[in-house]
Design brief:
Elements lengths: L5 H13 L4 H13 L1 H32 L1 H24 L14 H13 L2 H10 L11 H29 L1 H5 L2 H30 L1
Helix pairs in contact: 1-7, 2-3, 2-7, 3-4, 3-5, 3-6, 3-7, 4-6, 4-9
Length: 211
C-alpha cells in the first residue's frame, strides 16, 4: 500500500526527526533525572501511547478528506509542507532551548499516566502528524487510513526508541547530558534546517500537480 518511492524518504526524515532534541526528549530526560530510570521508561511508553491516539485520529481524518476530495487532500499536503518549513525554521531558532526544570519525582505508574496525557493533549503533536505523514501517503494506493497508521506506527516507534536511549543516557551519565549544550544546539539547528528543507522540497513537488 505504501509507495516504494516515498517510503525511503519517509524513513530518512522520520529518523532525523526522532533524533531531534525537542520537547518530548527533554520531557523524558527531565522525568528520568527527577525520578530515575524506571520513571523515565514509564514516561516514554506513556508518551508513545499518547502519540498513537493522534495517529488513529489523524488516520480517520485524512481518510475522510481523501474520500471527500482529491483536490482537498492536495491542499492538505501543500499546507503540511509549508508547516514543516515553519517548524524547521522555529526549531533552528530555538536551538539554544534549555532542558526543562521543575519536574517533580513520581512513581512509574503516575509517570506512565502523565506521559499519556502530556502527549495526547498536545495539539502540536496532532498538527505535526497531520503535516508530516500525509506527505508520504499514496492517495491512489487504497486504504489511506491504514497507510497513515502504518507510517504513524513507524514514526512513534522511532521516537520511542530515541526517548529510551535518552532515558538510559540520563540515568547513567546525567552530567554529560546536561553539560553539552553546544552539541544539543548543533543537533537542533541541523535538524531544523533538514525539516525546513524537506518541507520546501515537498511543497515544490506539489506545484506541478496543482497547475
Amino acid at each position: 500500500m505504501i509507495s516504494s518511492v516515498n517510503f525511503p524518504l519517509f524513513l530518512a526524515a522520520a529518523l532525523v526527526i526522532a533524533a531531534v532534541p525537542g520537547p518530548g526528549i527533554f520531557y523524558v530526560a527531565a522525568r528520568t533525572l527527577s525520578g530515575g530510570r524506571t520513571a523515565g521508561v514509564a514516561s516514554t511508553f506513556g508518551t508513545a501511547l499518547g502519540g498513537m491516539i493522534h495517529v488513529i485520529a489523524g488516520a480517520l481524518g485524512v481518510s475522510a478528506i481523501i474520500l471527500a476530495s482529491a483536490e482537498l487532500f492536495t491542499v492538505l499536503k501543500f499546507a503540511g509542507a509549508l508547516y514543516l518549513v515553519w517548524l524547521g525554521i522555529r526549531t533552528f531558532r530555538e536551538g539554544r532551548q534549555a532542558m526543562p526544570e521543575g519536574v517533580s519525582p513520581v512513581g512509574a505508574a503516575r509517570a506512565f499516566r502523565e506521559g499519556i496525557l502530556v502527549e495526547a493533549l498536545n495539539p502540536k503533536t496532532a498538527a505535526f502528524f497531520l503535516a508530516f505523514i500525509p506527505q508520504f501517503i499514496d492517495a491512489t494506493g487504497g486504504h489511506p487510513a491504514l497507510q497513515f497508521i502504518a507510517l504513524g506506527l513507524i514514526s512513534v516507534a522511532l521516537n520511542t526508541l530515541a526517548d529510551v536511549v535518552v532515558v538510559m543516557m540520563a540515568a547513567t551519565a546525567r552530567r554529560n547530558l546536561v553539560r553539552q549544550p553546544r552539541l544539543l544546539q548543533r543537533l537542533r539547528q541541523g535538524s531544523g534546517l533538514f525539516i525546513a528543507g524537506l518541507g520546501i522540497s515537498l511543497a515544490l513537488l506539489r506545484r506541478p500537480a496543482a497547475n
